[in-house]
Amino acid sequence: MAFAGSIGMTLVVLGCALPTYKVWWPFFVVLFYVLAPVPTIIARRNTTEFGSNYNPYLELAIFITMGFVVSSFALPIVLARSPADNPVIQWGACYLTLAGNVVVYLTLIGFFVTVDQDDFDYNTMLS
Q1: CB 21 within 8 A of CB 89
Q2: Rounded CA separation 19/100 (Å)
Q3: In whole angstroms, what is the distance from residue 12 CA to residue 96 CA?
Q4: What letter would DSSP give residue 35?
Q5: DSSP letter assigned to residue 28
Q6: Dihedral of CA 110/115/71/23: which sign?
Q7: Which residues contact 43 (CB under 8 A, 6 or more apart)?
């Protein structure tokens, strides 16, 4: 997972640092990478008395997390679509940042899926 995360970050840095682009505005998506899992982590600590299947805190956290994810994809697109005669970033930087977003968020999903797996009891396999 660390390797996949570093590949995603490398794509974002390439979108900023290549001599063709030389603009670091797309690097602000890293802020969204840090903020995206925070609501879900906080909501998983809260338990409710509504039952085990429904957690309103988790529903709100997923909504806020999706806002961060959509914002991280929208930021480079908005920067590239700024006034046509003088865009803030070039489309190549936008594509590299979007590719980095996909890799980083797939890595985060993989992390949460791995952490949430229940412990497997090998003794039940034998019986």
Answers
A1: yes
A2: 18
A3: 6
A4: H
A5: G
A6: negative
A7: 55, 57, 58, 60, 61, 62
The DSSP result for 32-79, as a single string, is HHHHTHHHHHHHHH---SS-SS--HHHHHHHHHHHHHHHHHHHHHHHH
In one-letter notation, the amino acid at residue 94 is: C
Q: Are 97 and 12 in contact (CB under 8 A)?
A: yes
Closest Cα partner for 64 from 29, 31, 36? 36
C-alpha to C-alpha distance for 55 and 37, rounded to whole angstroms? 17
Nearest CA to 78 among 91, 65, 66? 91
Name the residue among 107, 106, 84, 81 with its Cα closest to residue 93. 81
The full length of the chain comes to: 127
Tokens of 123: 């003794």
Q: pTM of the prediction?
A: 0.82
83 class by beta-carbon count within 10 Å (0-12 exposed, 13-18 middle, 19+ buried): exposed
pLDDT, tens only, 28-74: 999 999 999 999 888 888 766 655 667 788 889 999 999 999 999 99
